[in-house]
């Protein structure tokens, strides 16, 4: 289980009043800093929670728009989607195919409710529920929709992305 306040043996808090050693930077160091990668800045749990919440609501909006083009950038390049009634999709092209199949069958009109978000460094998970309606294209019927979702998330290039998503119907 992820824990926001987990301690890492390789990270020690700085003592008050101590300076972090620095090395002089050459002119234009920001343009040519390829030989000395910088260590990522520590993350702020409140910022992570907000960014993940924003990601989840962007995903909801993409689902409601039936937009594969809006869904794909929310996933990591090796993302996994496990939709009900379809095979597991791994990687951008399979995820694209799975959402294309889903959106050709149904039109969602749902709201997301976030039950839990847990962050541990560059990994997190979120539990959500969604409720609303589904239009089944084949019949034109609108039916109630209610799901439980589990998202495994990764920070990729500084942004939170969906690494894995699975869900099941509540009824």
* Helix content range: 10-25%
Mean of residue pLDDT? 82
Give the N-terminus to C-terminus distance in angstroms: 27 Å
The gross shape turns out to be globular
Q: Give the amount of beta strand, in percent.
A: 35-45%
Largest sheet: 6 strands, mixed
Q: What is the strand tally?
A: 6
Order of strands, widest sheet: 2-1-6-5-4-3
The chain-level structural class is: alpha+beta
Summed up, the helix count is 3
What oligomeric state do these chains adopt?
A: single chain
Describe this structure in words.
- The protein has 171 residues and is an alpha+beta fold.
- It is 22% helix and 39% strand.
- The protein is built from three helices and six strands; from the N terminus they run H-H-E-E-H-E-E-E-E.
- Strands 2-1-6-5-4-3 form a six-stranded mixed beta sheet.
Q: How are the SSEs placed, and which strands pair?
A:
Elements lengths: L44 H20 L3 H4 L3 E8 L6 E2 L1 H14 E15 L2 E14 L4 E16 L2 E11 L2
Parallel strand pairs: 1-6
Antiparallel strand pairs: 1-2, 3-4, 4-5, 5-6
Keyword list:
171 residues; alpha+beta; six-stranded mixed β-sheet; 3 helices; globular; disordered N terminus
How would you sum up this structure in a few lines?
The protein contains three helices and six strands, in the order ααββαββββ.
């Amino acid at each position: 289980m992820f824990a926001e306040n987990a301690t890492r043996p390789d990270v020690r808090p700085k003592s008050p009043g101590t300076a972090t050693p620095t090395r002089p930077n050459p002119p234009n160091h920001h343009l040519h800093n390829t030989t000395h990668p910088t260590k990522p800045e520590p993350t702020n749990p409140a910022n992570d929670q907000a960014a993940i919440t924003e990601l989840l609501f962007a995903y909801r909006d993409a689902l409601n728009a039936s937009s594969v083009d809006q869904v794909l950038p929310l996933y990591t390049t090796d993302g996994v989607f496990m939709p009900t009634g379809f095979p597991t999709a791994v990687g951008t092209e399979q995820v694209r195919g799975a959402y294309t199949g889903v959106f050709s069958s149904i039109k969602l009109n749902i709201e997301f409710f976030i039950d839990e978000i847990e962050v541990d460094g560059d990994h997190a998970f979120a539990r959500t529920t969604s409720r609303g309606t589904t239009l089944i294209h084949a019949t034109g019927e609108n039916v109630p929709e209610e799901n439980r979702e589990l998202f495994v998330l990764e920070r990729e290039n500084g942004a939170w992305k969906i690494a894995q998503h699975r869900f099941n119907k509540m009824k």
